[in-house]
Amino acid sequence: MQVLTAVERIFVEQIRVARLATADESGMPHVVPVCFNCTGNNIYITIDEKPKVTGTKPLKRIRNIEINPKVSLVLDRYEEDWSRLAWVLISGHADILNGGKEHMVAQKSLCFRYPQLTKMVLDELPVIAVRIKKIVSWGALD
Length: 142
Fold this sequence. Notes:
- By secondary structure, the protein is of the alpha+beta class.
- It has one domain (6-139): Electron Transport, Fmn-binding Protein, Chain A (Pnp Oxidase, Chain A), CATH 2.30.110.10.
- Helix content is 21%, strand content 37%.
- The protein has helices spanning 6-14, 60-67, 101-113, and strands spanning 18-23, 29-34, 37-39, 42-46, 70-77, 86-97, 127-139.
- A hairpin with a 2-residue loop joins strand 3 and strand 4 (42-46).
- The two termini are 23 Å apart.
- The model has no long low-confidence stretch (mean pLDDT 94).
């Protein structure tokens, strides 16, 4: 298990959107932008109320994690001044939290970081908990 350095942690905390990569049983990648919060050595991603979702079928990212819990997140900064480019790649194991203390604390931390979430009913919605295993970073993180 790797831990974010102080510089990487500050960079991650400044980034507002990450890209979550999962893969299905055939290895087909699926990448989606996500809101997240980094707490300790975990990244938390809530499944918020999705206006486009109908029925009870879980989102593709959840179905993929249930089959293959290995995931990656890319957090990046692009600027026209290429000397300012930077990214952090986090790989790990994802757990789906459907309740309990960790779920509740994660939802509260996500609502604090993204006030838009406070208008949604999240108690019954899952949280993806990424247990950080490996970190690679590059560029002008500071």
